[in-house]
Amino acid sequence: MELLGALSPPWWLLLLSLLALLLWATRRSPWEPRKCPADLTGKTVIVTGANSGIGKCVAMDLARRNARTILACRSRERGQAAVEEIRAATGNPAVVLRLLDTSSLASVRAFASAVLREEPRLDVLVNNAGVTGLPFAITSEGLEQTFATNYLGPFLLTNLLLGEWRGWGELWRLWRLLPAHSLLRTDLLKASAPARVVNVSSFRHSLGTADSAFLTGQRNPGGYDAAYNSTKLMNVLFTAELARRLQGTGVTANALSPGVVSTSIMRHFSWAVRALFSLLRPFMKSAEQGAASTIFCAVSEEAAGITGKYFDSSCRLALPSAAARDAALARKLWEASERLTGLTEQH
Ligand SMILES: NC(=O)c1ccc[n+]([C@@H]2O[C@H](COP(=O)([O-])OP(=O)(O)OC[C@H]3O[C@@H](n4cnc5c(N)ncnc54)[C@H](OP(=O)(O)O)[C@@H]3O)[C@@H](O)[C@H]2O)c1
Ligand SMILES: *[C@@H]1O[C@H](CO)[C@@H](O)[C@H](O)[C@H]1NC(C)=O
Ligand SMILES: *[C@@H]1O[C@H](CO)[C@@H](O)[C@H](O)[C@H]1NC(C)=O
């Protein structure tokens, strides 16, 4: 009897097994990147956070389709290692590194002006870089770090590459950075239409809050979990508003959830949380499987022309949360983000 009692699993083990089973069941995606024939010869793509996890697998796939593949990474060492790995695996020599730290608006501006100056076209922008588990902290630019990394940096990046700004200040800043002989290109994505913007969000957006006071740390969302959820909600809201603004330009914008994927995303958590995460790893999607829904939005025939939508981790059109579908909220967040990034002049 004693022995049986000791053997019967405690409740948390049961819960864990149930979770494992659930994860296992949702691993397979009905859409297989390898079966998609899309070829990107002559096209240029940018993948942010492309040195690990989902981003690296997405970049690998796009490079295999012969795209000029720009890995936008914050670390030269990690970025260059990924460039070499992808070049070796795909035989595509046009895989390059450009430094980008999405948590810094200055870095985003420098990256965008280099791209506008040196790249003749841009067909796909994948906003993948993201963090979770970081403590609440304000960057030297006065932004909260998780919000800057996951949301506001990518917001500015997307707008600069689109040429969406109306502020003369921004134009002037860029103009000074450009060599006098080069033409000021401000519409890289639009000029390359049909082009696609793809935002890696998460199913976790559904419990987020889109309070723009979070962006500068004027309000604390209450922990990294809430912060992460809220950045992922903002990703979906912005995709919707961008799509609305891009109507008729031939540039589409969609958001997606990769599912629960075994990557290094948990690196900032305590050892206990990471240990628990590790137990579940074998049941999760691999980074390669987790990349499928992003690749689907970036290249598939099925997603061509679709805009302002949210795809689930099985590459199916899904309805995001009610807050994520609130057009007024999306517009409010957009306007606050424009002011914070200097995309509109404040007089
Ligand atoms: N894994 C999941 O279960 C899951 C679920 C839902 C959504 N997602 C989303 O998927 C995306 C990719 O995550 P992942 O799971 O592949 O995690 P990952 O392996 O940790 O990859 C994240 C990538 O983003 C980069 N990055 C982080 N901060 C950056 C910054 N300030 N500037 C530039 N790059 C930065 C990282 O670069 P460093 O190496 O320099 O840190 C890394 O390359 C994220 O947006 C994440 O929110 C993941
Ligand atoms: C996603 O898309 C919007 C526009 O749709 C962009 O401004 C936003 O910053 C992008 N990136 C993320 C990670 O949300
Ligand atoms: C964030 O979202 C996840 C999944 O939707 C949820 O389990 C978690 O409780 C949320 N965290 C907060 C603080 O809202």
Automatic annotation (TrEMBL):
Coiled-coil stretches noted in the UniProt entry, renumbered to this chain: none
Alphabetical list of Pfam families matching this protein: adh_short
InterPro entries in the record: NAD(P)-bd_dom_sf, SDR_fam
GO molecular function terms noted in the UniProt entry: oxidoreductase activity
Keyword terms, alphabetized: Oxidoreductase, Signal
Signal sequence extent: 1-25
Family: Belongs to the short-chain dehydrogenases/reductases (SDR) family.
Matching PANTHER family: PHOSPHATIDYLINOSITOL-GLYCAN BIOSYNTHESIS CLASS F PROTEIN-RELATED (PTHR43157), RETINOL DEHYDROGENASE 11-LIKE (PTHR43157:SF30)
Protein name: Retinol dehydrogenase 12
Organism: Cyanoderma ruficeps
